[in-house]
Amino acid sequence: MSDVKTRKSVPLEPGDMDRLARLLQGGTPLRRCINSLIGSEKFSDAALMHALVVAGMEHVEELAAEFSYAELAESMDDEDRAYRAALRTRRGRQ
Hints:
The protein is mainly alpha-helical. The protein has one domain. The protein is built from 4 helices and no strands.
């Protein structure tokens, strides 16, 4: 990975701006969450956008893992399920 930082222009619609304003309202659970993500109570717009992008990427990665597990479960046949059940039983006896 490179240490080079890149700035991207992000188009925001009025509804997005309203949601961002709610994130910035002091004393709310949303603001405490943002403060926790950023690690500070004072931050720049760029730091806020970065924190939101990182949180969004983490959420997408979690969803992708859930999709992968669901696809794996769907692809298993009765023999696969029996094998996995036998492994769990063996591990439980140890």
